[in-house]
Sequence to fold (659 residues):
Amino acid sequence: MSSPMATLKAALASAVVESQGLSHPSAEELAHHVKVPDPSHGDLALPCFLLTKALNPPAPPPVIAERIAQKLAADERFVDVHAAGPYVNIRISASLLANTVLSDARTPGYGGGQEGAGKTVVIDFSSPNIAKPLAFHHIRSTVIGHAIARIHRARGWTVQGINYLGDWGKQFGLLATGFERHGNPKRITDAKHLVEVYVKASREADVGSLQRSITAPTEVRALATQLTEARTNLGSLPKEQKKRTEKLIRSLEKKLREYLATKDSDPLQNFNVQLEKLTQEAKEAKEALEQAKAYDTQARAFLKRMEDSDEEALGIWKRYRDSSIDEFKRVYHRMGVEFDAIEGESFYSKVLEQTIAQVRQQPGTKIDNGAEVVDMVVPKGQPPVLLKTSDGTTLYLTRDIAAAIDRYKRFKFERALYVVAADQSLNFSQLFSTLKAMGFTWAENMHHVPFGRVHGMSTRRGNIVFLDEVLEEAVQKAEQVCEQSDKIAKEHLKDVVEAIGVGSIIFGDLKNLRTSDYTFSYEEVLDFRGHTAPYVQFSHARACSILRKAGGVPSDIQPECLVTPEERAVLKTLAAYPDAVTLACDNFEPSIVTRALIDLAQVTASWLSAGNKDRTKRVLLDEPELQHLRTARLALVDAIRETLAHGLYLIGVQAPTAM
Fold:
């Protein structure tokens, strides 16, 4: 499907080529350089730099802009044509704009395209660990990945959306051995009970934290000594050295605050009390360390049993896996999230030795402190790429290498996307580097799609905010609002509040730039007047209501009747929508689509509100002599409905027809 904006750019480019008698550049090439300027300057802007040598005689861009503007002024398709330095700015005539946009925007699938036809993209998203329910922090990978998958399909790509479960590794050793100590056998299929067990077992085997606690008093004393000396010397230092020392003091103060868990502006305040506390914690950590090492060893031994195909260990693991997947599917279904395949790290447990053998062949491996690492140069400051630990167990990266090789064999992908948090960047840098070092040229088409954090849902360690509980609370809050509406039929209330509640959580995430952090708030995501799902969903429902009241759209449409400033704003926003979908696809950035929906909802609200103030701007005009205008406006409402429905579908949000 063509983009109206691309059609309008092509019309301008063709007019320039024809009016100036150009043989080069072609209209097609020139169209690629037409811009959409600030609305105050016009609808389209043509930069004339490309044409400096194309005209005879040659001329500087501002002179060329003047020549073109004079010629185009007589073209009835364009109005307000004027040169602005090296640019020609134009406004599109009401007739050209409406006729170009309206028929396309009413076509089902408007915003789709075929640039991905014949190409495959593999998208790895959501990817929770089994034996744990979906927590709220899984929201980002899940909804971003799902939206990216739908956007790619809309642009013609063949999509393989894979939920790559964390279903292998030491965490299952921790859970299995921890269950023996803390688990209730009657609740072995209760995912939330398994989380409780895992958290306890993980704490008990957290060797690293204990070791940090043991060394903390020594490190804190050293930092305090450095800080005291720096402060003492500060007054006698020359100016340049003083600046460096002040920077050092700020750094030392920050580190001490982190160690001492204090917000005091001076971390040396009450220092002895804090140090005594750390010293006591260090003593307790020393006493607990040997037991923690034993629990850690037990967990690793359980994983080794799994990797050695021990039937008992695999039976326990399978029970955890099956119950977890059932729980995941329940929550995914409620969110409307779909996958083409649910796989996991265990999928590759049988080929890990073969995978490591491939790495040994090219680029090679070596032993480093008992662990097997990839023999290749790594960027300065980065650790070596581990394939096996010193006790012979494999790591996430080993399985990721096997998965990547398998996926290329199966799908011959043009793109492989990993929608995973930004803090996993090192893992994917190592994965891609290793695959390239193995000689796989297709590794160039693999991309980590990172995202930021969600704030506002933090809890004490060990307490997890479950995603299904967040969805349920959002639905309950939506119900409280919707029950007060007399426009929602009681028989549809349950479906509407579900669409609004769940949609608000998804939309609330996807309106944010993917790489940005954001703070979650129920009040914000459910605000019917803000940049939210309910606001956009209401716009869709309002369009549906108008069309129902009118009995649909008559067939004899005269788009050129749409000439008011409000109608023009709606048409221009509709015209921009397919390009927003394309940009979102190319940049793996669903927020571009979400923002386009917000823009359309806003200009729609302004247009429909104008009819409340000026009866001549209403959609449902009764006067017989104005039926042609009523019909055109109904067609515009239908285009709005179609575009909002399509965009909401792309980001995984339902579009209620009544609210």
Remarks:
- The CA atoms of residues 149 and 159 lie 6 Å apart.
